[in-house]
Amino acid sequence: MLKVFYGENRVKANDAIQKFLGKNYEVIEGSNLTATDLPSLFYGTSLFSSERAILIRDILTNKTVADELIKYLDSPYKVAILELKIDKRSSAYKALQTKITFTEFTMPRDKEAGIVFDIYKIAKRDGAKAVKMLDRIKASQEPMMFLGLMISQALRDYQAHPQGAKEKRALHELSKLDIDLKSSKIAPWTLISAFLLRLSSR
């Protein structure tokens, strides 16, 4: 039985491979294989056991060998293939996709990632709430990069409402914040928090 496990989340992929193969299995580097190695790999017996469990890493990037895999689907052994990425345009994938199981393991999505884009929008009506949101993302963000994001959002607001007094004031405040971040001895996130509080009060 042959199965393919792929994706950036190697921890989850390896957990699934162990459930499939068990804890004791052979590890083969697929990039080093040639077509002549495949018969003994898929049909050859082991000196230590009549049953074999085999993990082959990165064989699908070895195109010549990958194209031969279709011939070995009746192997009596459990064979897991581990890949970082799958080229779904490749001839090997097209030949195998309906014959064997492909399981993808992606990295978990960062739940805080989208918050970065909402802080400025929230600050326009609720500065205190925006500051609380800011506290959640500070550890993963850089103050000047975050300022750049707020400036781009403020510019979009101004382009949509070029006569708006609030939009003009926001841009003025952001330009002042830019200077303060570069020159003030006050902690950058403190300055940004103060700006978010002022934004909703104007």
Condensed summary:
49% of the residues lie in helices and 12% in strands.
Structure description:
The chain is an alpha/beta fold and 202 residues long. Helix content is 49%, strand content 12%. It is built from nine helices and five strands. The protein has a five-stranded parallel beta sheet, covered by helices on one side. Helix 2 links the parallel strand 2 and strand 3. The longest helix has 19 residues. The protein starts with a strand and ends with a helix.
Strand count, sense and barrel status of the largest sheet are: 5 strands, parallel
Spatial strand arrangement across the major sheet: 2-3-4-1-5
* Unreliable parts: none
- Overall pLDDT confidence: 91
* Strand content range: 5-15%
Radius of gyration: 28 Å
| SSE sequence, one letter per element | EHEHEHEHEHHHHH
Shape: elongated
State the helical fraction. 40-55%
User: By helix and strand content, what is the structural category?
Assistant: alpha/beta
Put simply, the count of helices is: 9
Distance between the termini: 67 Å
Overall number of strands = 5
Topology, element by element:
Blueprint: E1 2-6, H1 10-21, E2 26-29, H2 38-43, E3 53-57, H3 63-66, E4 78-83, H4 91-96, E5 101-104, H5 115-123, H6 127-137, H7 143-160, H8 165-183, H9 188-201
Parallel strand pairs: 1-4, 1-5, 2-3, 3-4
Helix pairs in contact: 5-6, 5-7, 6-9, 7-8, 8-9
Keywords, separated by commas or semicolons:
202 residues, alpha/beta, five-stranded parallel sheet, 9 helices
